[in-house]
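Q: Fold this one first, please.
A: Sequence and structure below.
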Amino acid sequence: MGKVTGFMEYERLEEGYEPVEARLKNYKEFVIGLNVEQAKQQGARCMDCGTPFCNSGCPVNNIIPDFNDLVYRGGDADWKSAIAVLHSTNNFPEFTGRICPAPCEAACTLNVNDDAVGIKSIEHAIIDRAWAEGWVPPRPARVKTGKTVAVVGSGPAGLAAAQQLARAGHSVTVFEKNDRVGGLLRYGIPDFKMEKSHIDRRVQQMEAEGVVFRTGVMVAHLPEGSKVTNWAKDVVTAEELTEKFDAVLLAGGAEQSRDLPVPGRDLAGVHFAMEFLPQQNKVNAGDKLKNQLRADGKHVIVIGGGDTGSDCVGTSNRHGAKSVTQFELMPQPPEVEDRPLTWPYWPIKLRTSSSHEEGCEREFAIATKEFLGEKGKVTGVKTVRVEWSNGKMVEVAGSEQILKADLVLLAMGFVSPVASIIDAFGVTKDARGNAKATTDFNGGYKTNAAKVFVAGDMRRGQSLVVWAIREGRQAARSIDEFLMGESALPR
């Protein structure tokens, strides 16, 4: 694929970033994508490697060598074919081309002893050019089936399923508890990583394909005192949906944040990341919000070393935080992975995000003992260094210290979907609190409850956008087969 000797002639070319001082002034995307010639050169690096491990490394099984080769060929017709190949496995490459961690690149054969092909940057270039050239038209079904499907949740799993089912001819209604479509894409991922115009453009396409969106509608209920973002104005019961629709797909996110029950947790200024991040996205959308959580002039402690924590770092810096420190319980991983040992699997290595580069102190192997405060407000965090032995955490004697903190953001991941929604439909849960269903070819994604299917975080727990798209697509096929006895939708 690509140019036979391309991987020897060309080096990996990274996408560019706008300067830190410029991008901290706003919430706009700042990645500078590859132009046509740069993408062609990157596509030339794709090897004729026999077994394309990138395909299996990609959760949606993108046909990567094919679109790399088409981009390398470079004609307009080739680029149009490239977006057709990309869309054959992925409904929303503009999402994954921006926020996917690219496990496909970890699995690239070239990554064994060189830098991987820039697959994600090529995907980004393909879909952005496709939108610019008008190559992404609506594809409404030619024949309607008369069957109705309710999709609960408008994140990537729900959107992917809804689009597939609408194109199969079913009448699809998507229910979203918040005021805009997108789920955690909309109110979890900061705008500087993915501007929400990309979601709006897909919603317009899907509406032209017949999908109906009902925003501000809570399906079932949230527990009293829940911290899950909920801007719903109406409520629909589980019974109403199962009576009115021929099938129901539960596709909500894993929004139940992991808590940190240490002394001082109830102090003002200690919040879940998912209280903090959605508010800024809502303000960016033009809404006014009273008492917004902000980091202006504050010493911010972010507890949790993953992507959500990184998002808190980037948002705090844009607010004008006085300092930002991020905690990670695990020891600092190596800067370079042992490729012969880990390839083609996802390696554990130190990952420095663009938000970290904007200003952040990172602390590894550190645990929080207590939140300290005065007059009911947090003023500091008491910590201790930890070591790991035989998989067990041991505190390092004499290593306790106190760090100043005016705002603490808990970004330690998510334990499960909201249980009350799953319970309202009578769906059995697994040991981790997720809705129980298999991914089998026959009968996959179907729950124990009649007519009720489940996909994405609701079934697998906290995961990647690309996994949500995969599950939404596969669940759509199962629902189509359930309704019609057979399905022509791809799996």
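Q: Good. Now the second chain.
A: Here it is, same layout.
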Amino acid sequence: MTLLLILLVGGILGWLASILMRTDAQQGIFLNIVVGIVGALIAGFIITPLIGGAPITSGSFDILSLFASFLGAVVLLAIVNLFRRGSVR
């Protein structure tokens, strides 16, 4: 059940991050899920030690963990855009 929630919440967070970074037209639902999950992993290593909480990949679904995972997805898309286009946005 937790894996299903991680996939669902990761997809939603990846979709919201792609809207913020203006890459939504280039991504499908599968890539949104991947961005959300990998963003949560990035949040676990980089963002969570700075702001506290836990990423969604640990099974925690509170506001701080959702925010950290969303920021991780935005960081991931910014890095991808930096290499793909030469600019963050």
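Q: Anything worth noting on the second one?
A: Helices lie at 2-20, 29-51, 63-85.
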